[in-house]
Write a structure and sequence with these properties.
single chain; 288 residues; alpha/beta; 5-stranded mixed beta sheet; 42% helix; elongated
């Protein structure tokens, strides 16, 4: 077994894998998965579907929150001489994933870590949302305890950057309701089953999303994108829900986009890029 005094000759490859569609894997990722001695996967049953699809025979072991100490020792032992690939169930390891601990462990031992970029639900949802993409903050999963969740959301409420969250379907309704309570009626997007057959991106104010999922059963994994706070809005000016309504009315009337964006930017105090991003997002939602 390798100790802190012994060098790790192998490389830990952090490999991004598809978040749904198996075609979204890079040639480099496939090569690395074939060449390494071992693949460390959060759920080997899930990863073996990818490996079988591309006829990759490399052995895989489970590395998850519950066994990270024991599995970590085996991985470090392998890295003493040979290379290991770290994969997540979907997307990039270490993003809301126990792989972050393994990476830190290998770095602490002076080992080489090399990232093989790949799909990410965070970036796919952010780009799909139509909301400002920079700056943004990835929050990940909120607490399952409502009190803790509300306190976290209250702390995030003043933040000006776009916020990105992960959420499970059985907690989605409660989370959206708590976001509406903490943030007010901001523009948002609920991205479901990204890159999969039933992919869906719903772009709407939080109140509309709360209403929608009150009537429709949430299914699949969700990534939520929420507009940041707008500090420059003055009392009495339109809120973000009203902004969307005014933009929709202008579209229906066939108004000039530039003139509408300029006028609503002046009246609302919102950044022009935010008003323009909402126009584009709402235009994509229109049928036809």
């Amino acid at each position: 077994m390798a100790s802190r005094l012994e060098p790790l000759r192998g490389t830990l490859y952090v490999v991004g894998t598809p978040i749904g569609n198996l075609e979204d894997v890079t040639l480099r990722a496939l090569r690395i998965l074939r060449e390494v001695a071992l693949i460390a996967a959060e759920d080997t049953r899930h990863t073996r579907r990818l490996l079988a699809h591309y006829d990759i025979q490399t052995p895989a072991i489970s590395y998850r929150e519950q066994n990270r100490e024991r599995a970590g020792e085996r991985i470090v032992e392998c890295l003493a001489e040979r290379s290991v690939a770290l994969v997540s169930d979907a997307g990039m390891p270490a993003i809301a994933d126990p792989g972050a601990d393994l990476i830190a462990r290998v770095v602490g031992l002076g080992g080489r870590v090399e990232v093989i970029p790949g799909p990410s639900a965070v970036l796919a949802a952010l780009v799909s949302s139509g909301l400002p993409v920079a700056p943004f903050t990835f929050v990940g999963f909120l607490s399952r305890q409502r009190g803790d969740r509300l306190r976290h959301l209250a702390a995030l409420a003043p933040r000006a950057e776009t916020l990105v969250f992960y959420e499970a379907p059985h907690r989605l309704r409660g989370t959206l309701a708590d976001m509406l309570r903490a943030f007010g009626d901001r523009p948002a997007a609920a991205c479901r089953e990204l890159t999969k057959v039933h992919e869906e991106v719903l772009r709407a104010p939080l109140s509309t999303l709360v209403d929608h999922f009150g009537r429709v059963e949430p299914r699949g994994e969700f990534t939520l994108v929420v507009h940041g706070a707008v500090e420059s809005v003055r009392p009495g000016e339109p809120d973000l829900g009203l902004l969307d309504r005014e933009l929709r009315e202008a579209m229906e009337a066939g108004a000039d986009m530039r003139a509408v964006v300029a006028e609503l930017t002046r009246r609302s105090g919102l950044p022009r890029r935010s008003v323009y991003a909402r126009w584009q997002a709402l235009r994509r939602e229109r049928p036809g």
